Amino acid sequence: MKLLSIVVPCYNEQEVLPLFYDKITEVMTGMKSEHPELDYEVVFINDGSKDKTLEGLRKYAKMDERIRYISFSRNFGKEAGMFAGLEASKGDYVVVMDADLQHPPEFLPQMYEYVSSGEYDCATTRRVDREGESKIRSFFARKFYKIMNKISQTEIVDGAQDFRFMTRQMVDSILSMREYNRFSKGIFSWVGYRVKYIEFKNVERAAGTTAWSFWGLFKYSLEGIIAFSTAPLAIASLLGIISCFIAFIMAVVIIIQKLTVGIRADGYPTIVCLILLFGGLQLFTTGILGQYLAKTYMECKNRPVYLVQETEKDARENMENKD
Ligand code: UDP
Ligand code: MG
After folding, report:
1. Is the pLDDT at 202 greater than 80, yes or no?
2. Could you tell me which of 32, 5, 163, 176 has the C-alpha nearest to residue 90?
3. CA-based nearest residue to 164, from 155, 154, 178, 174
4. 100 alpha carbon to ligand 2 midpoint, in Å?
């Protein structure tokens, strides 16, 4: 027997949860009839939802023994949710997917073929268009991938998603990266292995709204850069070298001027501009240093990535006690 673990982080997903449950049950029943050796479990992570997501999960866990869930003590973010789900998963194969059906479960049979054949260790979808997304957002997304791939050794594929079907070996590799600041796009790529990209057109969310604001995405992309590149740290040295070079040339020019035609003491605006410029550059680069220092500070505190308040075991025990 082979077990497939389906890991689903959920944050305020009460509206899509029933849709997701029906869909995944349908797809997996179909898959099971085709591959009798395959069984599955679904591990939902309730990431501190403020709506009735947890109630829904309790209900499904009591109804269906294939449904498991982990409920966090508060919202820890999707990265922590995925990490918790991977840790809890028991399967020989693990797939991570969103609850909102933007990662269509219809891909699962195809992904299973690729990975179980032994040809690939991971199958994932890649968006080829950004339909249903604002122009500005697409523009910044593209720029982000460009910059990121220039300054980081870890390649991040444009349009690659967190919809990943993986072998146990790859999951264990990911779990061995115990960093607190988790940037999964980078982590998935950093561990390597043979990855199959399945191209597909973007789908809109089935219900509910996205938790991502533009500002949120912007901050997330900076996190990604800091987590997987140290290139920004070199900006200070680079600017320093350039300004030393300019200063040297200026000094030579001034000395020659003084010895030949003489210098009239003006240039007050120039001095003000230069002080502002270099003051700004110094603060900017100190700020970059601060960002890395802050990440290092958080890492060395060694805090847990997430805290569990309740799991499916609690729901099932409750049910037995009532009987
Ligand atoms: N999610 C989560 N914790 C969060 C935010 C989101 O677990 O703090 C989950 C959410 O429930 C969904 C997935 O992450 O299953 C993707 O979120 P969303 O659809 O809001 O993002 P988008 O598809 O717009 O990237
Ligand atoms: Mg979504």
Report:
1. no
2. 5
3. 174
4. 5
Show the tokens assigned to 52.
Answer: 């009735």
Beta strand ranges found along 62-183 (DSSP E): 67-72, 93-96, 122-127, 160-167
Closest CA to 159 of 216, 120, 117, 197: 197
Mutate to test the pocket of ligand 1, among 47, 164, 204 (most ligand atoms within 8 A of CB): 47
Question: Measured between alpha carbons, how far is 4 from 91 in angstroms, rounded to an integer?
Answer: 5
Nearest listed ligand to the Cα of residue 16:
1
Residue 38 DSSP code: E
pLDDT > 90? residue 318: no
Confidence of residue 132 (pLDDT cuts 50, 70, 90): low
- Give the phi and the psi of residue 11 in degrees, each rounded to 5: -135, 115
* CA distance readout (Å), 314 to 61, 62, 71: 10, 10, 10
CB 96 within 8 A of CB 171: no
Q: Is 289 exposed, middle or buried (0-12, 13-18, 19+ CB in 10 A)?
A: middle
Of ligand 1's atoms, which has the minimum distance to the CA of residue 97?
A: 15
Residue of higher predicted confidence among 146 and 204: 146
Give the DSSP H or E segment for 4. strand 2-10
- The pTM of this model reads 0.82
In this predicted model, what pLDDT tens digit does every residue of 243-275 receive, in sequence order? Answer: 999 999 989 998 898 899 888 777 888 888 889
